Q: What sequence folds into this?
């Protein structure tokens, strides 16, 4: 599908990517000390935290249970909306309080907020008790900085980057399901979004390195991998090596891990070939997160999304027609500057058309440094909250309707852990990424089992194991 630009995008400066192989020793000089790591934001941050954990544990720290336990606290921050920032600032207050009693406590900030020069300046000015500030590009420097904070002085390392680091080590949270970065940064410059500023320009990892990592994870017994990028379908565009995301996805599928997933897809550049590859391989999961953001052409143009509502619909239809039983979820922003009630109605109408399996919905939050932060915003907060409420009602109605279709069906569930719904229960995910709670003991964890769905709610399903089907 060919999607023309609806809005003048910022020119992409050519970035010559520097591939750097990390190779350094870390001495366990903090044996007996404890760390507490708090992660805010998206899957990128969650995966970055797995790198941070590796470094902390290599330094000798052990994971503590709470902030009060900690000798070092690391806050991996998010900048996507103002409330994400507020949460970090709130938590920092608790850290400051603790540091009054525990003078040697090391406080470290990293992640997206600390990539923004104004935020860094404000942290230095208003939170001078913070010891280390690093960004998203230089996490590998953390062990060196921690080891060097002898007198716990303020250190700031702020850098933008044209680099891709290879040979990164992770302490993965799960032995069942693993994240794999395939690309960093984003070049789309949606006018509301801070990500191109916090994560830098689009930089793809080389295909050989990704395939090597997938093969390693298969050998380690992982049942599921999720390929991670701000915009996975742009994978490879910056490399000019003749391969794209469809090529990568196919090669990854052929390695034979039982479940392959990917996030996030932009409707722009979502090629027919991608759809064909997803449809062809049983181990590529039929689940696509396809952010819509708005159903109004005028707002999409102001957002610089590069597609129209009609083009979104056509893409959506093609995905639904070609990929059997596919589930599609989305992201939607309400209250974007200039959004009229009519624009909003168009969003509601498109949600009704697509009947999404789920949607993450947000009120527009102006981010300093983005174009939309300067757009005139005349919509009252009351109106924005009302739109969000009305949108959520429709979204939840379709989530429930989609989930109800599963009742009585037998589906394959990868059991990932204990359920929050009771000690006798475990939980897992269908191929379409529906959360299922089921009665069963911990021996099921890590297995793919056949489950009969007996009840449906808006955000989860209840099921019973039919037959344990271990996939080797
Ligand atoms: N305000 C509100 N929502 C935003 N998102 C990104 N930037 C903003 C913003 N400034 C939402 C988009 C995106 C998701 C990860 O967060 O919907 O897809
Ligand atoms: Fe932000 Fe996604 Fe747009 Fe990139 S494509 S600018 S990450 S919303």
A:
């Amino acid at each position: 599908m060919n999607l023309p630009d609806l809005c003048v995008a910022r020119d992409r400066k050519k970035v010559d990517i520097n591939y750097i192989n990390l190779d350094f020793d870390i001495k366990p000089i903090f044996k007996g000390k404890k760390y507490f790591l708090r992660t805010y934001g998206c899957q990128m941050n969650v995966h970055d935290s797995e790198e941070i954990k590796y470094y902390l544990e290599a330094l000798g720290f052990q994971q503590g249970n709470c902030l009060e336990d900690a000798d070092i606290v690391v806050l991996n921050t998010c900048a996507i909306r103002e409330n994400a920032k507020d949460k970090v600032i709130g938590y920092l207050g608790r850290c400051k309080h603790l540091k009054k009693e525990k003078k040697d406590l090391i406080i470290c900030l990293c992640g997206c907020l600390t990539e923004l020069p104004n935020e860094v300046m404000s942290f230095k000015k208003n939170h001078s008790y913070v010891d280390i500030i690093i960004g998203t590009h230089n996490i590998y420097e953390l062990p060196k900085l921690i080891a060097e904070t002898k007198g716990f002085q303020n250190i700031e390392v702020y850098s933008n980057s044209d680099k891709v680091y290879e040979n990164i080590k992770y302490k993965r949270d799960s032995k069942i399901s693993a994240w794999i970065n395939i690309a960093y940064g984003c070049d789309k410059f949606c006018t509301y979004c801070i990500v191109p500023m916090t994560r830098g320009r689009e930089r793809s990892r080389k295909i050989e390195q990704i395939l090597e990592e997938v093969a390693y994870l298969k050998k380690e017994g992982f049942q599921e991998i999720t390929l991670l990028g701000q915009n996975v379908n742009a994978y490879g565009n910056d490399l000019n090596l003749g391969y794209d995301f469809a090529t990568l996805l196919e090669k990854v599928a052929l390695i034979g891990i039982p479940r392959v997933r990917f996030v996030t897809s932009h409707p722009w550049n979502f090629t027919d070939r991608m759809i064909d590859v997803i449809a062809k391989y049983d181990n590529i999961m039929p689940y696509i997160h396809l952010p819509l953001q708005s159903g109004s052409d005028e707002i999409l143009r102001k957002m610089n999304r590069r597609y129209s509502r009609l083009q979104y619909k056509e893409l959506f239809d093609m995905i639904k027609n070609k990929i059997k039983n596919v589930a599609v979820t989305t992201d939607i922003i309400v209250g974007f500057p200039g959004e009229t009630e009519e624009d909003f109605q168009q969003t509601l109408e498109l949600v009704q058309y697509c009947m999404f399996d789920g949607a993450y919905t947000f009120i527009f939050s102006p981010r300093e440094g983005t174009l939309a932060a300067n757009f005139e915003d005349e919509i009252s907060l009351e109106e924005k909250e009302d739109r969000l409420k009305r949108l959520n009602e429709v979204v939840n109605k379709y989530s429930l309707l989609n989930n109800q279709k599963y009742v009585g069906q037998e589906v394959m569930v990868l059991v990932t852990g204990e359920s929050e719904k009771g000690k006798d229960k475990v939980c897992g995910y269908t191929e379409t990424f529906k959360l299922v709670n089921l009665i069963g003991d911990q021996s099921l964890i890590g297995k793919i089992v056949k489950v009969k769905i007996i009840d449906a709610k808006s955000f989860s399903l209840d099921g019973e194991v039919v037959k344990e089907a271990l996939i080797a």
About this structure: The chain is about 30% helix and 20% strand. Residues 19 and 302 are 35 Å apart (CA to CA).
